[in-house]
Amino acid sequence: MTPIVNRPVRNARRSPFDGLRVSGWHCAAAILPLMLSSSKHERTGCRRAVSPRCLSVLLLVAALLLSTGSAIAQQARPSFPPEFVAQLKGADEIHVATVRKDGTRSSVVPVWFGWMDDAIWFTTSPTSHKAKRIQRGSPLFVSATGKDGPFIKTKAEIIRDGAVADRLGELYKDKYWIAWMGFFRPSASRNESGKTILLRLTPMP
Question: What is the mean pLDDT of residues 37-45?
Fold first, then answer.
């Protein structure tokens, strides 16, 4: 059997600002009582009411913290190595393998695929061994250079989204002449009816 090489996945460096997303929510949670307090004081005529200008500043700070934390979290997500992405963009098919119940590697098989949204996408039959093993939690090992590897370990997710299936179908139509003729092309109807399973592959952390 062909050995599988688990290529390391590049991870963004952790930043001391990784916790800003939480801090932003804390800030927003702290502002809400102030806003309610302000409204109450304005009704009672109390001089200690928080001014509208102060509330605006606090809301702006909370929004900046939330957006910054979200951007940093986005950067911290694992990504495929650039050389692997370049191979994917030039490949007509990928070779994949799953893990059987006994822990051994399955046979390596070629599949059509599409690259979009920084992920690998393809469809398979819900009764296929791949689909059943993925539903049990098996990772998917992917090679962009052939059945002999090297392979990268990926996380496979089942996606039920007709719009995404149609987008993948457009990629297939441009990439494979038989899909251009309407055969083996992902579509919303096939995805939503359960005739095919749409898979998204992303790097394992």
Answer: 48
Averaged over 166-195, what is the pLDDT?
Answer: 93
DSSP annotation of 17: T
Across the range 57-74, mean pLDDT stands at 53
pLDDT at residue 11 tops 60: no
For residue 59, name the pLDDT band (cuts at 50, 70, 90): low
Domain range for residue 36? 20-75
The verdict on whether omega for the bond into residue 110 sits within 30 degrees of 0, i.e. cis, is no
Nearest CA among 116, 103, 110, 96 for reference residue 167: 116
Number of domains present in the structure of the chain: 2
Per the document, the length of the chain is: 205
Cα distances (angstroms) measured from residue 123 to each of 17, 113, 195: 38, 8, 10
CA separation for the pair 43, 136 (Å, rounded): 59
* Pairwise CA distance, residues 113 & 22, whole Å: 37
The CB density around residue 37, as the number of other CB atoms within 10 Å, is 14
Pairing of strands 197-203, 94-97: unpaired
pTM over 0.85: no
Tokens of 93: 């098919």
Query: Does 56 share its domain with 89?
Result: no
